[in-house]
Amino acid sequence: MKNGFILITTLAFLAILAANAVLLSDFIRFRAELQHNQNAQFLVDKIARAGISAGETILLLDKNSYDWFTDIWVKPKHLEFPEGSVDITIEPLDTKFNVNSIIGRDKSINTQAKNIFSNLLSVMGFPSSLLDTLLDWLDSDDFPGVFGAESEYYATLVPPYKPANGPLNDTFELAYIKGFTPEILIRSGERPGLIDLLTIFSDNKINVNMADPIILQALGYSSASVEKILNERELRPLTMNILMRIDRRTTGSLTRVIKFSSSFFKITAHATCAGISSTQSLVVQRANNKITRLRWERN
């Protein structure tokens, strides 16, 4: 009986040792994989940042007084390194409507910007009540518009939160505003989402050389005029004279709102290295042959 107990104890001890050996082996392998992944992640992040820097250089190589679809920065770029590769895309942001421009720095409503956003909702077939809820989110008071919403409404939500009562820090913040549903904000098939046409980075002017046709309509151009504009910019960059010839009245009312070049861009770099990927974005402002970095984003 005693010998049998010793045998059982010995076998149990050996089993524990064997289990520990397996665990140790797994741990060593895990540490090696972790170290490899950490090194690869470090490298792929560096490659992505190199792609961002390349994008900044490409933007500075563009010396045109306009920005148009044939410019050097428009076509995506692919770079190969010994350690991996990176794909670079550059998106002009001031081809979109700056949603923060509706409220001026003095907290007053910018009537022209308000009308453009109202037109945008109409062109896309979205409820006009979204204008009221947006205004209430942006303005500094706590008095709701006719179809708006202020603190009293947002306090009833689960979880409750307060309206910003100030400018958006990101267009994704729109999702917190009453009525701005995913169906309205997010792209569906060929139809862009509202968020695709809005920005918070611009000088409150829109580059009509590259703006979406929906934005052109929101600016006040008729469908016929938009078609003429699109036909013209297929052939050459637009100018004020071209737009005046197409629609003098509308163009004349937009001289403070439209432009033909871009100053704000989003550079995105997607890098791969040893099976690991990294996507990083940088919002920049280009002015006076200089790049100013505004916001890093890591996806």
Based on the model shown, name its key terms.
single chain, 299 residues, alpha/beta, Pantoate--beta-alanine Ligase, Chain: A,domain 2, Ribonucleotide Reductase Protein R1, domain 1, five-stranded antiparallel sheet, two-stranded parallel ribbon
Percentage of residues assigned to helices: 40-55%
What value does the Rg take, in angstroms?
A: 28 Å
In terms of quaternary structure, the protein is single chain
Q: Write the element-wise H/E pattern from the N-terminal end onward.
A: HEEEHHHHEEHHHHEEEE
Biggest β-sheet: strands ordered side by side in the sheet: 1-2-7-8-9
How many helices? Answer: 9
- Whole-number tally of structural domains: 2
Low-pLDDT sequence parts = 11-34
Describe the structure.
- The strands form three sheets. Strands 1-2-7-8-9 form a five-stranded antiparallel sheet. It has a two-stranded parallel ribbon with strand order 3-4.
- The chain is globular and about 60 Å long.
- The longest helix is centred in the first third of the chain and has 60 residues, at 2-61.
- With 299 residues, it is α/β, with parallel strands linked by helices.
- It has two domains: 2-93 and 263-298, GSPII I/J protein-like (Pantoate--beta-alanine Ligase, Chain: A,domain 2); 107-193, Orthogonal Bundle (Ribonucleotide Reductase Protein R1, domain 1), CATH 1.10.40.60.
- The protein contains nine helices and nine strands.
Helices, strands, pairings?
Layout: H1 2-61, E1 77-80, E2 85-92, E3 97-98, H2 111-124, H3 129-138, H4 151-154, H5 182-185, E4 198-199, E5 206-207, H6 213-218, H7 223-235, H8 240-246, H9 248-252, E6 258-259, E7 264-273, E8 276-287, E9 290-298
Parallel strand pairs: 3-4, 5-6
Antiparallel strand pairs: 1-2, 2-7, 7-8, 8-9
